[in-house]
Amino acid sequence: MRLQRGFTLLELMVTLAVAAIVFSFAVPGFQQMVQRNRVITYTNNFIATVNYARSEAIRRASPVSICASADGTTCNGTWSQGWIVFVNTDGDNPAIVDAGGGEPVLKVQEALAVQYTMTPDAAFANDVTYDQNGAARATGVLAVCYAGNLERSRAIVVTRLRPRVATDTDGDYIPNIDAGNLVDCATPSGP
Fold first, then answer.
1. How many angstroms separate the CA atoms of 3 and 170, rounded?
2. Does the residue 163 lie in any domain?
3. What is the mean pLDDT of residues 31-53?
4. What pLDDT score does 1 carry?
5. How many structural domains are present in the chain?
6. What distance in Å separates the CA atoms of residue 157 and residue 90, rounded to the nearest whole number?
């Protein structure tokens, strides 16, 4: 008789059961990490876009606008569907990309993934525009959320000169804008 080495069927089944239990605890945590990272990425992309628009306005000595764009060529749709940066030579407000190539599109951002939203307050319902001196025409807030959840969302505060990400100052995982906690992902504002 030869001695055979290996796993018995019972040992294999116990190992698979333990692995399944461990995996069931790990998956939700991994999904939450992916969701948080996407919210952070979308926030950072928009901040980079705002900084780019501001620098282009100064460099070109002409207004530069960022507007929501579902098609990547005109101002339409919602911020969650994407946005464009264009030279707004005639300075119209709300921003409209004029036909004929007089207002070139400088940058296009694709739509956010399903269930992720970027929603502006009333000040940025149509556009964020920087004048040739590098100052924003309006100040306001945009909220970046996953599935409408305020916890671990991000708020982008656009001031006259520099945008910033609102931080959680009271430990409740909800960003604090100047007026206090962000109260809603659909209509960002403070209390």
1. 65
2. yes
3. 94
4. 65
5. 1
6. 26
